[in-house]
Amino acid sequence: MASMFSSISDKFKAFWQQSSIMQRSLVLGLAVLTIAVFVGLTVWMNQPDYRVLYANLSPEDASRVVTGLQADKTPYKLENNGQTILVPADKVYDLRLKVAGDGSITGQGVGFEIFDNIKVGETAFVQKINYQRALQGELTRTLSEFPGVESARVHLVVPQHSLFIEEQQPPSASVVLKLAEGRSLNEKDVQAVVNLLVMAVEGLDKSHISVSDSNGKVLYYPPEEGSVAGMSNTQLEHKATVQRDLERRIEDMLAPIIGPGKVIARVNADLDFSQKTIRKELFDPDKTVLRSESRSEESTKGQSTLDSGVPDANFRGDNMSGGLSEQESTRETRTNNFEINKEEQNIIASVGDVTRLSVAVIVDGTYVKNEETGEMMFTPRSDEELARINQLVANAVGFDRARGDTIEVSSISFGGPDLAFEPQLSDMIMDYATRLGKPILNSVLVLLFLLLVVRPIVLAMIRPRVQGELIEGLEGLPAGEDRLALIEADEELDALDAMKKIDDVKAHTMQLCEQNMEQAVSILRGWIRESEGASVGRAA
């Protein structure tokens, strides 16, 4: 082992002495680079793999979690301005369970956990203030979970209950939202915030809620009582949707006929958003039905004998002197009840009906090349084509003349025809250079690195070893005269035999060289040195 180390040391010293300054610098630089890469890989492989423990934490929650990790002496990292905490991958799940058990993460503000530790002797006023703080904190935490909301602040005003209804004041709420960068809330998201507040705070009405963002932009404001401000945002969105649908329907229908990008359609739709309930009761006297009938008949008949005397003024007998008298009467009563045909209607008119449409359509004309000037001349569409387009548009949008709908179709130049663009040779060369320049440049840099850095280092390390092996190979080889004797012995042969013998000698020589390559190289080097010595002697 000691001899091997000594041999390696001697070879290195010999290589170092025979090397130039450039070769020594390259070897030292390569050695330092190799050591630095090895040390860096070792340090990188020994570092623990960090994973996310919690992300998007508030400063309060992040502080509590970090304090717990420091108490347990657990390594951690902070990213994203302290909102993301990373821990070793093998401890992520254990630490999550531990943090959840400790209750370190509670969110922004103070929630109902404020009542976990009630102090003895707290007054009703303090408890009321704590309840309001807790309610504001819980609403803040809930709003912070909305997509696009980074943080939130909720302010509630909850008046005291009064025994008199006329003196009772309604509660109110004000919300300030800090939106994430590049995010915004649409009308539905704002309405969700308003509905959350209304359902979470007792007695709160939409008319006492204000929502704005941290930039001062009002997202929701209560409508004024008794004001006529026109249509609401939802109604405006519905109107815009109806108009866009009709416009897209016209453009999609005419684009295959006129050409893509050569049709512009604009629609103005008047919608009726009034809510109507119509109640009607209709009676038809011609259509009657007997519902009930009542009939009563009464008949009386009798005789009587009256004595003579002073006649009665109402006497109806035969004679005034008395005698036999008869009386007979008949009475009939009939009642018929008829049911008259009655029709009741309760009509609820639909909201958002179209009351009037105004449609404007612009189509591009045709272009004909002028033979004299070579320019493209615009030619408007004919009246027949415009009338046909008008009819198509009317059928597409549901044109109704009784509503007062109007349609206007015009043919106007859109600036000229779309000419085919032929790329120039310079543009094509620049395009290929842009796409292929970077890979070619990388390949050239790699090739230069191999030729100018790697190749000289490899040659500098190999050359001294080859020289030493050639010098050692000269020992024990046969002399050159023995090899030449093979040719001198055959000088007397004829030309054909000589040529054959020379071929045999060449084959034999090649065989010997293949079997003793190192020794053959040493012989050649010796011949070269002898020839150089002879030339030097003659020169002297």
Summarize the structure.
It contains 12 helices and 14 strands.
First and last CA, distance: 50 Å
What's the overall average pLDDT, rounded? 76
User: Biggest β-sheet, characterized?
Assistant: 4 strands, mixed
Read across the widest sheet, the strand sequence of neighbours is: 4-5-6-7
Radius of gyration, in angstroms, nearest whole number: 57 Å
Number of strands: 14
Percent range of helical residues: 40-55%
Low-confidence sequence ranges: 226-230, 466-493
Rough shape?
Answer: elongated
Q: What order do the SSEs take from the amino end to the carboxyl end, as H and E?
A: HHEHEEHHEEHEEHEEEEEEHEHHHH
Q: Report the total helices.
A: 12
Secondary-structure-derived class: alpha+beta
Relative strand content? 15-25%
Topology readout:
Elements lengths: L1 H17 L2 H26 L3 E5 L4 H13 L5 E3 L4 E5 L3 H11 L21 H21 L4 E9 L14 E8 L7 H14 L8 E5 L4 E3 L12 H26 L4 E10 L4 E30 L16 E26 L4 E11 L2 E4 L6 E4 L3 H15 L8 E6 L13 H48 L7 H9 L6 H21 L1 H23 L1
Helix pairs in contact: 1-9, 7-8, 9-12, 11-12
Structure characteristics:
alpha+beta, elongated, single chain, 3-stranded antiparallel beta sheet, 540 residues
Question: If you had to describe this structure to a student in words, what would you say it looks like?
Answer:
- Helix content is 45%, strand content 24%.
- The chain has twelve helices and 14 strands.
- Helix 1 packs across helix 9, helix 7 runs antiparallel to helix 8 and helix 9 (425-472) crosses helix 12 (517-539).
- The protein is elongated, with a radius of gyration of 57 Å.
- The two termini are 50 Å apart.
- The model is unreliable at 226-230 and 466-493 (pLDDT under 50).
